[in-house]
Design a protein that fits this description.
Elements (H helix, E strand, L loop, with lengths): L6 H33 L6 H26 L16
Membrane topology: Single-pass membrane protein
Protein name: MICOS complex subunit MIC10
Function: Component of the MICOS complex, a large protein complex of the mitochondrial inner membrane that plays crucial roles in the maintenance of crista junctions, inner membrane architecture, and formation of contact sites to the outer membrane.
Length: 87
C-alpha cells in the first residue's frame, strides 16, 4: 500500500517545479533573445528583454494552471444541474 500524499508535500513539489521551470524558460528566452539580437536587430537590447519576458510569462502560465489544479480538485464538479448556466 502506498503512503498517503499530503497536500503540503504536493504543493512543495509543484512550487519547486514552478521555480525550476521559470529559470529554464527565462534562460531559454534570454538565449533566444540574444541570438536574435546579434543576428537580426543590430545588437539592440529589447529582443533580449522580450525573450526573457516571454519565458517568464510562459512559466507563470504553466505554474498557475498546475497550482490551480491542486486547489480546484473536485469529484462532483461534472454533476452540474441542467438549469445552472455555465461561465
Amino acid at each position: 500500500m502506498a503512503a498517503p500524499v499530503y497536500v503540503e508535500e504536493e504543493l512543495v513539489r509543484k512550487w519547486d517545479k514552478c521555480f525550476s521551470d521559470g529559470l529554464l524558460k527565462f534562460g531559454g528566452g534570454l538565449a533566444l533573445g540574444t541570438v536574435f539580437s546579434l543576428l537580426f536587430f543590430k545588437r539592440r537590447r529589447w529582443p533580449i528583454l522580450m525573450g526573457g519576458g516571454f519565458g517568464i510569462g510562459m512559466a507563470y502560465s504553466n505554474c498557475e494552471q498546475d497550482l490551480n489544479g491542486t486547489f480546484r480538485r473536485c469529484d462532483h464538479c461534472a454533476d452540474k444541474p441542467a438549469d445552472m448556466p455555465s461561465k
